[in-house]
Amino acid sequence: MSAPEIRLLEPADHLAASGLLVHLNPDCPTEVLLQRFRTILAEHDHYVPVGAFVDGRLVGFAGVWIATKIWCGKYLEIDNFVVHPGHRSEGIGGALMDFLETLAKERGCNLQTLDAWTTNHASHRLYHRRGFEVWGFHFVKPLGPLDQ
């Protein structure tokens, strides 16, 4: 397999991205995921969608937030990192991570952060191999249904 092409997504890629997001959010309708994705893009200019392409087909995705927090300064938060199940263990996740680290450095970020489901052990192994450390917990308090 040739190295994937990693690049910022264009509007024509958005539907394919929402198709990948289904793998992370199987209980949420695709239409809802696509609408949320489009809302984020329309309302937040510090959100950057990135894709990994093999033979012109989107097989990996990460949305990243580039912002500033009091405790760390400028940071890049990796959000919704996913590789299509049929393309896992092909180096796509690593190539996408390399691109995101370069992007963070180019944008002057002090660190990268990400959240991972506690049950997603395969992702934990990848993130640890890539130099990520667990520094805290992400607490969540649902206020209503998450699939709407």
From TrEMBL:
It comes from the Bacteria. The keyword Transferase applies. This is N-acetyltransferase domain-containing protein. It comes from Haloferula sargassicola. It holds the Pfam family Acetyltransf_1. The keyword Ribosomal protein does not apply. Keywords: Acyltransferase, Transferase. Residues 4-148 form the N-acetyltransferase domain.
